[in-house]
Automatic annotation (TrEMBL):
It comes from Rhizobium favelukesii. PANTHER family: ARABINOSE-BINDING PROTEIN-RELATED, POLYGALACTURONAN_RHAMNOGALACTURONAN-BINDING PROTEIN YTCQ. It holds the Pfam family SBP_bac_8. This is Sugar ABC transporter, sugar-binding protein. Residues 359-378 are annotated as: Disordered. GO terms for cellular component: periplasmic space. It is found in: Periplasm. Residues 360-369 have a biased composition (Acidic residues). Keywords: Cell membrane, Lipoprotein, Membrane, Palmitate, Periplasm, Plasmid, Signal.
């Protein structure tokens, strides 16, 4: 389906549009990110499309994952937005509110939409007008990976379903027991090595706040003070800070993977679905996939991934065919939250860091007059 969707976004304008041989080719710019395999796949799709549509040239514009949003912002400022753009799903509300994206549902084959999950459709839908502005090739989430050998060594219970997830008490008890195993250097890898220039911290750590009942921002009033720095959030981040202080968490300096690295020094991992293939190849039958623990009365897990959209700058529309908070302030929400977590993990006061983050978020909302019409959605 991925090839079909990407080709459709590029191809929709070709319907009813003809170019005579004397006319120059239409150039469609596509801005994207991704690992080498993804980049190669995008190139192959573009080549096949050009072969089938000789009147169109596809210009692929690659931007590194960690600098992608900055490069897109630079394109906006220089009035050189591409025709098609890839974006991380939680940034959709900001992009639509800012006038960067156009509706795409009329350009997409209904069969493609019918084949997608509700969450995939939701991540590309703007909550104000409930219109579709982007689509993803997949959806994503985060799970708890485990090394069965280590878990059996401490007598840990292996959850069989989401309803059977570990409780907070079980999880912390297992972390302590794992820390005493000779072959375990760290009980858990939370992939801190991804750093604070990606969405990882906001994406993966938010469920630990949401499970006990708090959030990054109140999704009715769109105020962060009183929510992000509420006692459940402070308690959740204080809990994670304790794991770090105890030496249970792989430090950022040790890179992005110690779970399935040589020797398997980490017993657990808070990882995305994309980790599974490499981890399974390395660990064989020792890999276990489990739901995230319940740190409160309910389970929580994230969703939302990179999605494709057509910009309002495109002149070739006939040729181009618990999520994180869906709000225009999201760029500020995620950046301030990640900075707060980084400060907390480095020993900072939890309440102080979260209050400062919440105040920065609210200041951004106020500076933009509430991001109308979001200011009316209460």
């Amino acid at each position: 389906m991925s090839n079909r969707l990407l080709s459709m976004l590029v191809a929709s304008a070709a319907l009813g549009f003809a170019i005579s041989p004397a006319e120059s080719k239409t150039v469609i710019q596509v801005m994207h990110q991704g690992d080498p395999d993804t980049v190669s796949a995008c190139g192959a799709v573009a080549k096949r499309f050009e072969e089938a549509n000789p009147d169109v040239d596809i210009e692929l514009i690659y931007a590194p994952h960690d600098a992608y949003n900055e490069k897109f912002s630079a394109a906006v400022m220089s009035k050189q937005m591409p025709d098609i753009v890839e974006l991380d799903a939680p940034f959709l509300a900001n992009y639509v509110w800012s006038g960067y994206l156009q509706k795409i549902k009329p350009l997409i084959d209904p069969g493609v939409l019918d084949d997608m999950t509700d969450s995939n459709i939701a991540q590309g839908t703007y909550p104000v007008d409930e219109e579709l502005y982007a689509l993803g090739l997949t959806d994503s989430s985060v799970v708890l990976y485990g090394n069965k050998k280590y878990l059996e060594a401490i007598g840990a219970r292996i959850p069989k379903s989401v309803d059977d997830a570990w409780t907070r008490e079980e999880f912390e008890g297992y972390l302590e027991k794992l820390s005493n195993l000779e072959d375990v250097k760290w009980p858990i890898d939370t992939f801190r090595g991804y750093g604070i220039k990606t969405e990882w911290i906001t994406y993966a750590y938010s469920p630990i706040l949401q499970s006990p009942g708090c959030d990054l921002i109140d999704r009715k009033t769109w105020k962060s003070v009183g929510t992000l720095d509420s006692e459940p959030c402070v308690d959740a981040l204080r809990l994670m800070q304790t794991w770090v202080k105890n030496g249970w968490v792989v430090p950022q300096s040790s890179g992005t993977n110690q779970f399935y690295a040589e020797g398997h020094p980490a017993a657990l991992a808070l990882g995305g679905h994309w980790v599974y293939a490499e981890a399974a190849a390395s660990m064989k039958d020792d890999i276990v996939v489990m739901p995230l623990p319940k740190f409160g009365p309910k389970g929580a897990s994230p969703n939302g991934t990179w999605i494709w959209a057509i910009t309002t700058a495109s002149q070739q529309v006939s040729k181009t065919a618990i999520a994180r908070p869906p709000h225009p302030a999201y760029p500020m929400i995620t950046s301030t939250f990640m900075q707060a977590v980084d400060e907390i993990f480095n020993g900072g006061d939890v309440k102080t860091a979260l209050t400062a983050a919440a105040e920065n978020i609210d200041e951004d909302v106020e500076d933009n007059d509430g991001y109308p019409p979001f200011d009316e959605q209460q």
